Amino acid sequence: MDHASGTRARTGLALLLTVALLSGLWVPAHAAPKGPRSSGRTGSAWLPYWGDVDAAYRDAVRHASQLHTVSPFWYETSGDTTVKGHQGAGRHDIIDGLHDAGIEVVPTVTETLGARKMAALMHDPQRRQDHVDTLLDLVDSRSYDGLDLDYEAMALTGDREDRDRVRTGYNKLVKELCARLHDLDKQCVVTVLARVRGSGQAFDYERLGGYVDRFRIMGYDLHWSGGDAGPLSARDWYEEFLRYATGTVPRHKIEVAFPGYGWDWVSGVTGHAAHLTWKEAEALREREDAEYRFDKVSGTPHFTYRKDGAEHEVWYQDGRGVRAQLPLLRKYGVRGTGLWALGFEDPEFWSALRDA
User: Fold this and answer.
1) Can you state the percent helix, strand and coil of the chain, rounding each to 5?
2) Three-state DSSP class for 267?
3) Label partner for 26 (CA 20 to 30 A): which of 85, 202, 232, 279?
4) Distance between CA 237 and CA 298 in Å, rounded?
């Protein structure tokens, strides 16, 4: 084979491998899922630090056969070298119990600095290194299996310049963090907003997807407490962000997280919805003798009731809704699922995932 022919053959092979990687048909050895997920578990879930933490932990253990990872929502950073633990953070009994159940423990870290301060931190090489060192110290403080960065505050900006600086700075931070976590045989995970309809522009899906082991997309809060009433998730919305995500991130890394909760809006009042878990929403519906309605377009339940002379509108998610939305994941070849959050969800959520 001459040089030109060999070059064409290598180029063709590289193109085929790239297509296969993005489609999820081929997984390079260094990126192959490790641990429990290799035994067929496809789910992850967050464990909140508030409410009945022990009940949430028992929920995880009860469904261990479907969970490869639990991410305790335990930590928050507010500076280069400052990571604060929430109440109960780092509980050895929870970590050990999850490990005994065959579940990996990858705690979540959030940030409070916002766009401009985080951008300044991430673009300064020394400050960025100090921040990575601090995160690695956290991983080393317990028998953790990696780290999940859920840096949302910095992404909630409408300023294009700030957003661009956040996006390029976050690429640098995640690249360095993942490289060092991988040197320690630890997982590197990011949680991001759905990139659709103007949202999620602060996250560079393509580059981040190349660095991380798992790429979690928050498939919820299409409508949220700070806006108008409506479904938290919707099938056409899933279609939009999955089309983009699977075109830029290898499918085997993607996880779509479903909501196990809802919002209670007062009709005509924007920005003051009350949070409800599925259990709380159903208890409220029964107490108010409200009719259960299911919106087939979005694939979510909802109901209305009156209190103190005001009309309330509640949208939430249940097992029926998850069954209606799961086909979108299958359509795009995504097997990874997530749950926000343990202890919030309809018990039928687990049956829906198992039957999918």
Assistant:
1) 45, 25, 30
2) coil
3) 202
4) 8
Please give the helix or strand (H or E) that residue 295 lies within, else none: strand 293-295
At residue 59, what are phi and psi to the nearest 5 degrees? Answer: -60, -45
DSSP 8-state assignment for residue 24: T
Domains of the chain: 30-218 (3.20.20.80)
Beta-bridged to residue 147, according to DSSP, are 188
Contact 273/354 with Cβ under 8 angstroms? no
pTM, rounded to two decimals = 0.90
Across 106-169, the runs of DSSP E, i.e. the strands, are 108-111, 146-150
Q: How far from chain centre, in Å, is Cα 136?
A: 21
Q: Cα angle at 154 between 150 and 329, to 5 degrees?
A: 45
* 194-232 as b/e: b if 16+ CB within 10 A: bbbeebbbbbbbebbbbbbbbbbbbbbbbbeeeeebbbb
The DSSP annotation for 183-224 comes to HTT-EEEEEEE--BTTBTTTS-HHHHHHH-SEEEEE---SS-
* Residue 31, both tokens: 């990126």
Q: CA triplet 264, 270, 274: central angle to 5 degrees?
A: 25
Angstrom distance (rounded) from CA 346 to CA 349: 6
C-alpha distance from residue 191 to each of 7, 39, 85, 110, 320 (Å): 39, 23, 19, 10, 25
